[in-house]
Design goal:
170 residues; alpha+beta; Peptide Deformylase; 7 strands; 28% helix; globular; binds ligand GNR; binds nickel (II) ion
Length: 170
Amino acid sequence: MTIKPLIILPDPLLRQASRPVETVDAAVRKLADDMLETMYDAPGIGLAAIQVGEPLRMLTIDLSGEDDEKAPRVFLNPEVVATSDALSVYEEGCLSIPDYYAEVERPDAITLRYLGLDGEMHEEAATGLLATCLQHEIDHLNGILFIDHISKLKRDMVVKRFTKIARKSG
Ligand code: GNR
Ligand code: NI
């Protein structure tokens, strides 16, 4: 397994829509392993493939606590097929926008359809933090960032700050 470098705002890759995974082959399984290792190392609770520079519709999640056993999950070509009317607000962060946090409102519950590493289609209901994290990751697959859900004033400020940092570090 390999820890891959994270793509950071304002890298235009983060605005690119990712393409579907066609077959669950060795390359896809290797990328899933590398994404999990990168996510644990960061540490983060979720990661989309584009965040390590691979424009594939693929994401990893592990919501287990520090003292729990690891619970790695891999979702290929995930699609939200239903959302609740009820909304919930979470303070979100993103490994591609380090050290910036803001409250985002999203549907509290979703129904998800996805391809598993087992090569089978699955359908799953998710609520709470899992639903929030899945929606955050699926946004990444479409080139959307959590700062797109906050005010333009705040978003412009964050992008400006990260653009300045990127210029300095060349
Ligand atoms: O590690 C992460 N934490 C987090 C917290 C609240 C809502 C979403 C997330 S996902 C984020 C990792 C990340 O950037 N995934 O794309
Ligand atoms: Ni993110």
